[in-house]
Records
---
Amino acid sequence: MQRNPHKEPKPEIWRILSKMRSGRLRTMALKPEEDAYGQEIWACYQGKEVFEVVERDDGYIDPSPHGPKIYFSRYADWAPYHRRAMDFVKGRVLDIGCGAGRHSLYLQEKGFDVLGIDNSPLAIKVSKLRGLKKARVMSIDDLNYKPDTFDTIIMMGNNFGLLGGFKKARMVLRKLHQMTSRNALVIADSLDPYKTDNPDHLEYHKQNKEKGRMGGQVRIRIRFKRYVGRWFDYLMVSKEEMKEVLKGTGWDVRQFIDSEGPPYAAVLGKMAQPRPLA
Ligand SMILES: C[S@@+](CC[C@H](N)C(=O)[O-])C[C@H]1O[C@@H](n2cnc3c(N)ncnc32)[C@H](O)[C@@H]1O
């Protein structure tokens, strides 16, 4: 086909911008060597003894001995606040960052129609192998479902964190508003980052605030053997901060569910409309 000689080719940047606006530009898929989360979940699925190593951008390393084992835990072993959060689930469910699928599988067994998404191909493979019928490799950044597709969105295992930071959280929450039914709920858990006396954490919060970030907006990556995940922002908020993040997004807190420590769950309800973006 002959090109129109009078039509200037679009510069690359315009093509990218217009794809971003139309939602046609997908976040670059994780390369196999970046799927550190998936590799640890895969190893755990195969019965290997696995640690989870979280590296923060100030060099702080947090190895968790329960690591991915907890992603395979059964309902009976979950903390009471975690179990209580599941009582609010209704209708068609989207599980964002489903990991090995423990919440999705529990809800599927209860008869709910559940879709689990995760940006880790291996985590999705494991979820499917464990019996999850609907599971997709997808990043929270690429959500693009039609209105009224879901009645409940769950973000468990500290996955309020996937909202990343103040600005991104508000953008994603608006998207969740569009994709859900009229009385939809978001059920998410977080951890109050300020309930600590660890001087490294306290210093990190201070430096974050000096940089204009939220105190508990941790920049982390997962490491497993020779696999190194991508850096990403994971957001931990106090209850007051959560309310601040929600303002104008069309969601408000219906109920907090406390644990005995810093973690807590929140049930967010849908209000009529988000405020238009300024
Ligand atoms: C802390 S784990 C929680 C897993 C699961 N919800 C649970 O509680 O067992 C976080 C999960 O989020 C996934 N994840 C990380 N970044 C993501 C993104 N941008 N989009 C979707 N999932 C993501 C990880 O692969 C991992 O499976």
---
Amino acid sequence: MSSPSNTLFLILLLVILISSTSSTTSGEDLHKQALTLAKSGDLQGSLKYFRGAVRDEPTNHKWVNDLGVTEMRVGELKKAGTRFLTSLHLSPSYSRALKNVQQLQTFVSPSEWVHLYAEWLEADPGHGFIEGVEPRPLSTGQRHKTKNLPVVTYESLLDPGNETVAEFILGAHPYILVGAMDHWDISAFSESSLVSEFGDARVDYYPQGMKEESVHPFFSDLRDALKNFEDPDGLYDTVDASSRNTYIQWNVRAAEWERLRLIGMDLPPMFRTDDSWISSCFSPLDRVDEFLVKTHWRMVLIGQTGAGMFNHKDTLQSTSFQAQVKGRKRWHLCSSEQDRNMYKAGDINAFNPDYEKFPNALDLDCFDDVVESGMMVYYPANYWHQTRNLDPFTMSVSGTLVTDGNNEPISKEFDRECDTSKGVRIFNPEEKLCEGLNKCKEIWRMKSWKEDMAADVEKVVRMRKGASEL
Ligand SMILES: [Fe+2]
């Protein structure tokens, strides 16, 4: 029989357990809290609660308007404008939002207004002009030249006699590869199996996406980062988490990469050429993971609709592939011939450039395409790239490669990284890591790139032939 003190202890334990498992706060509660703070004059403090409420219920036109009012009052005018437009988009007859548009227009110039209206229109294909809201942008969206990426089939890449595609494999042209993911076990990449297999993996987590260069990540494990997709727990003091465009960047370590392979990631031989030199250079020095993580060599990227990476070129001059596991991703790719039309990394939103501010962008001639689940995209060194997820749960696996064409510039980049007098660019150099990189440079210099690739491809073709004859 339990004593009264034991019973009391059990009740207390139960209360603690219940309160620690019910951490989800509803949008209703967040909105109430936001109003209380705003009424007490703490506008800045109320913002994160308004934003949390809107993330929880993005179609609540009143809450979206309330958020806009608060942003207008603290001087975040551009954001306020997009909230009022969204509120009217959700409820065209909502007169309060219309009045707020008119008030906002007394604080911004007509050209600023038109620009924010154009940005808002472009941000979501479902957005359109709103009745009664003037002035309207005369044009929006891309006006520079773009074309689709070449599409190459995996079968044709594996055909050594096919000279027209031979230059694509790890060459100087970007392309979409189809048919190379037919043997992947996609079920291994479901949210639940990722949590059970890799829940403790450390990830960088961007609750507001990576559309601007200045955003900084939160650090968390994959389990919590995925949970925060739907329920941005704790709210964020310093970032605007109102939109569902969270981006998770998981820098995959060696053991995790191996495990991904074991459970369903079946990479073609041309995208596995780094395995042997990574092991030769860094395993004896116990620096494999340090190399992989510091260079973002291999990543799993998980994001919501609208999340993406701002326009940039990879500093390391590396070549990359990305396998689209779930959802669709839009890619804008430009060669370095377009440098003068691109300004600085992050200046241009390639999907909707501000041609007034960056007039050279009108002369851009680039690729713009959508990579769908089951396709891979390849782009060579020195290519500008910008991405945007088009579905609520989008996932891709990316890898970096050293090739025949880029091993010399990469070697120079690593020399620069390891020269401490030049300051930190990508990573803090460490003696053993640089020792490993020196070994890599030697391996790359001596490597017979074309012959090794041909042998790898031949091996796969033989294996496939053997399998079909069984
Ligand atoms: Fe990149």
